[in-house]
Structure formats: C-alpha cells, structure tokens
Amino acid sequence: MSMFAMLHGVSPEFLRSCQTDSSMLDTLEYPEKETPDFLVIHCWGALTYLLGGDETGAWNSEILTSRTIISGECIDPEHETGITPAFYLAVDEVIQVASELAQISDEALLSRYEPENMHDLHPIGEWTDCPEIRRELLDDFHALQAFYAVQANAGNAVINYLV
Questions:
Q1: Judging by DSSP bridges, how do beta strands 73-74 and 87-89 pair with one another?
Q2: Are 44 and 122 contacting, i.e. CB atoms less than 8 angstroms apart?
Q3: Does the bond joining 12 to the residue before it have cis omega, within 30 degrees of 0?
Q4: Distance between CA 45 and CA 109 in Å, rounded?
Q5: Partners of 74 in the beta sheet?
Q6: pLDDT tens, 28-72?
Q7: Rounded to whole angstroms, what are the CA distances from 53 to 2, 17, 23, 85, 117?
Q8: Best CA proximity match to 15, nearest among 3, 5, 4, 27
C-alpha cells in the first residue's frame, strides 16, 4: 500500500476554525491542478529521516526540520483525515521551518542517506545507492523547501497528514 504525506498551507483563521470544529478538515481537498498551497510528498519517511528523524521515519521533537512533513500539534486525535489525524505547524513554526530548510544544501541532506539503515522507511524496500533514488529525494526536498517558503511568505500555517 502506498502512503503519501499531504501538506496544506492554510490561513491562521482556517486553522483556528479546524481547532474549534475538526469536521472543517474535511473541506481540505486534493486540488485538480498544481497549487502553491498544496504539496504531496511520496518519500515522506526517508525525507523525515534525512531531515533529522529516526530510522523508522518518525520525527524528533528536538529537531524542527524533522517535523516538516508529518508532525506538529494534533488537531483532533479522534478525527482521521486520512490514515492519520491531521497535525499542524503554526505560522511562527512555518517561518522557522522555511528558514532552516533554506539553509540545508543538497550535499548536507544526502550526507545522511544511508540505504543500509533505511529499510524500515516508507516506501519500504526502495532504498539503494542509485542516482535515481537520490534524485527523487532531492526533488521532494526542493518541493518541500519551496512549499514552506511560499507558506512563510504568505503568513500561513501548515496542516499535514498521511493518506
């Protein structure tokens, strides 16, 4: 089964409405065309690991960049938006994440790429030392950097979850 991380840039007002009434999360849509306020990350487990998470793809509360894809504060643990409940990063966290992501070079990111330690990361079984996989990780990373830069500049929060 393939899982994807969904990230939505939302206004602080929309986030507050979701915190008050989690059914508002159901209005988040998968857009029919590309938009700067929506991002799908396919290699979410590996990218979380490369950004400071652990070998299972879980984020590390001490390393903000590891929290960029799936984590933050849970909006409502009882409301499943996809496979997981929805989490959020507030505007101030989004600004900090954007700044920290912008400082990470491709070389620094890939220096943590260790296929032999990544067998439990989603998508499981895909981690080998080949240029195509490194390229896919970098593509997702660059999209993540751009997404957070746009959200920080817009003064948006980010809601994230797995589907």
A1: antiparallel
A2: yes
A3: no
A4: 14
A5: 87
A6: 988 777 778 898 888 888 898 889 876 656 666 778 888 899 888
A7: 20, 30, 30, 19, 12
A8: 27
Identity of residue 144: L
Q: What is the pLDDT of residues 3-30, one digit of tens each?
A: 889 999 999 999 999 999 999 999 998 8
CATH number of 5-157: 3.40.1760.10
Asked if residue 159 lies in contact with residue 66, where contact means CB atoms within 8 angstroms, the answer is no
Task: Return the number of other C-beta atoms located less than 10 Å from residue 42's C-beta.
Answer: 18
Other CB atoms within a 10 A radius of the CB of residue 140 amount to 21
Q: Which two tokens stand for residue 124?
A: 């499981």
Residue 125: its pLDDT value, please? 65
How long is the chain? Answer: 163
pTM, 2 dp = 0.90
Q: How many CB atoms lie within 10 A of CB 69?
A: 27
Write the Ramachandran bin of 96: left for phi over 0, alpha for psi from -120 to 50, otherwise beta: alpha
